[in-house]
Design a protein that fits this description.
The protein is of the alpha/beta class and 240 residues long. The chain is built from eleven helices and ten strands. An eight-stranded parallel beta barrel has the order 1-2-3-4-5-8-9-10, surrounded by seven helices. Helix 5 links the parallel strand 3 and strand 4. Helix 2 packs parallel to helix 4 and helix 6 packs parallel to helix 7. The relative contact order is 0.14. The structure holds cytidine-5'-monophosphate. Cytidine-5'-monophosphate binds next to strand 10 and helix 10.
């Protein structure tokens, strides 16, 4: 939690780059490295999802993480961990050995499971970011379900806080939920900007601390230009 806050301060950017490369790209490690070099000055962290974690080897991922760190950035593994305690622990072992600084986990596993996962990650020097509300249209069918007179997401938020998680994920397409969760202490990571219809400034104004942005930067003709534009717009809107 502190390391990403320092990186965001140093880079003057709350952008977490979702390094979601299309399957059509041929040399994925080379393209990943090129993208990090291009936008490294405009972001505070890189998030890797199945786009890279499935096709690449552990040593290829480790090399990408070394590059990420050499730019003063943090690295987040987004596999939305959601399994039994033993499996989650093994996943954390592998992911931290590959150089990830944090993992995203799904509080659906329950209070105990999430607490154990956080403990394990913290022991390994890594953080845990809990999924509280996703960004896609179907999110309300899961995270928005009414349970005991309230949305499941508010239970997930409590679990994240109780387990000592380092942050939460709430989609930038869910501004009312963002405003609700912004009142609590955990840093909020917000995906869904651009390609999924969310807006960077609105998300920040509604309480997001970090913006997770993928396709609008990664698939742009000039990724650095787009990342810089978003960074400047956010800096300006925060100053207003
Ligand atoms: O390309 P785009 O900016 O939509 O990428 C968003 C990234 O954030 C993807 O990697 C997606 O899997 C992830 N994500 C999300 N919504 C969540 C959690 C993660 O879009 N609630």
């Amino acid at each position: 939690r502190e390391r990403i806050a320092r990186a965001a301060d140093a880079k003057k950017s709350p952008i977490v780059l979702a390094l979601d490369l299309p399957t059509s790209k041929r040399n994925l490690p080379a393209f990943a490295a090129k993208t990090i070099r291009a936008v490294g000055q405009h972001i505070c962290a890189v998030k890797m999802n199945f786009h890279l974690i499935l096709p690449l080897s552990a040593s290829e991922i480790s090399r990408i993480n070394k590059l990420v760190h050499s730019y003063g950035l943090q690295s987040i593994a987004d596999i939305k961990l959601n399994d039994i305690e033993n499996t989650n622990e093994v996943a954390i072992d592998h992911l931290t050995r590959m150089g990830f600084d944090a993992v995203i986990a799904n509080p659906f596993i329950g209070k105990g499971g999430l607490a154990a996962l956080v403990q394990k990650a913290h022991k390994a020097g890594a953080g845990v970011i809990a999924l509280v509300y996703m960004s896609h249209p179907g999110a309300k069918e899961g995270f928005g379900l009414e349970v005991g007179g309230r949305g499941l997401y508010s239970e997930f938020l409590e679990r994240a806080t109780g387990a000592g998680a380092d942050g939460i994920v709430v989609g930038a397409t869910q501004l009312d939920i963002l405003r609700q969760v912004a009142k609590q202490q955990l840093p909020v990571y917000s995906p869904g900007i651009g390609a999924q219809g969310g807006d960077a400034e609105q998300a920040i104004r509604s309480g997001a601390d970090y913006l997770i942005i993928g396709r609008s930067i990664v698939e742009a003709a000039q990724p650095a230009k787009v990342a810089k534009e978003i960074q400047s717009r956010i800096l300006l809107s925060v100053r207003k």
